Amino acid sequence: MPSLDRMRPQPDDRLAFFQGFLRKPMQVGSIIPSSRFLERRIARAAGIERAHLVVELGPGTGGTTRALLRHMRPDATLLAIEIDPHFVSVLRRLNHDPRLIVHEGSATDVRQILAKYEFGAPDVVLSGIPFSTMTRPLGREIIRSVHDSLEPGGVFVAYQVRDRVKILGSEVFGRARTDMVLLNVPPMRVYRWEKQAR
Question: Is 164 left (phi over 0), alpha (psi -120 to 50) or beta?
């Protein structure tokens, strides 16, 4: 297990995140990374400490990624899927942790990406990508892909400023459990769904 010192943010991570926001504000959705309060709430909502395979969509510069690694089992795997090549290069600095795989690609392709690495269904999928800035059809496509990738009982957690993901997610998963994290800039909603058996 890597030391916590090695997983602390690099000095330029916040700058890289802000620069990413300036380059592609519709993809990043915030000007600063998540707070530690939010990261802990996300890990708890997802039950990360029990998961064997975790997928993170839109990890940005890796603040939440580091928090997940701190909570994960020693034998677990974290597949981080990021569409921004600059953020991918930042994330790959974390690759000293053998549990982490960083993949450059789109959240719409989560099932194909899992197949590429010969992974089965994940226990947890987490998403910080801003659903409020994308088209509804694209948002539905991502959520449907997440749903189809999970085993029954698998968990999808999305942390968002606005509630569009709640509306779209409820169309696919049903009712969400919602939590508000005020100790974050901006305040963030955490939505949790569990895939039901058919």
Answer: alpha
